[in-house]
């Protein structure tokens, strides 16, 4: 077993040892005058990872080393703090200042726990909610950390299922959790015959307000977004027959049913049974699939797919300033204002998984 001391030594070496930059230092320096707008994890080189603060078109401003592969990012609503979460089964979360590039604190998971790769701040910024799991059982836990007291853990919420992944906060301060329902050993699923995914709504105090399910229990609910109002979008990973192509996106409003979005089976097959990141505007919904090397745009009104486009290793997406910004692990970023209206940029950053918007 890896001891806590060994883990701390490895973490210190990874954070403060020599690392290869993503881009030549002159490129980063040239971008320092740009306004920070996006944060995401990235691949620096083989077995080296970082978190990158970038401008709206993906030009890097700051990069900080990560001890292992990162996943999601939480951004404080009023301070210049952000948190990078280790990829599941993750053993760290790293708090940093995205304006200065200063690492503020690294928190290690306890030996019997791990992080699922996502978290979110409360709307007032006082608390950080983190999806966590118990190693023996994958029992779902929401860890609550006090952002005003150096991110001390102050409480835990449980009782909503196993395998939580992404968590978001609604305008009314309720929490929504994508509960994957999968018990894992490391990254290996061991309960596919009995998995019970759900979209779960919790009060800030941990009361289970509502829990809804998709008819096919092999659709593991994982990634989430909301439209700034009351509509939640959830993206799924299909854990059933490898030849099937079920709907991988659904919409939900509290008190209603989960409504799958609409595409032809051959279109769903392009997503290779996995949705990564989701963002929504009043009119459109956009979702990416790194496994499918593509992204899709749906009409929020008709729920129908209106565009399916190729993008190598399509990863993060955010909606800001009336346009969608999409990242790629191939070093490209895409800006989309509406279907077919696309602008492409390349700054050499190999983006990984998700993007989060600043402001």
From TrEMBL:
Instruction: Report the InterPro entries cross-referenced here.
Output: Quino_amine_DH_bsu (IPR011044), TAT_signal (IPR006311), UCP028101 (IPR008311), WD40/YVTN_repeat-like_dom_sf (IPR015943)
Please give one Pfam family short name.
Answer: DUF1513
Name used for this protein in its record: DUF1513 domain-containing protein
Species of provenance: Vibrio sinensis
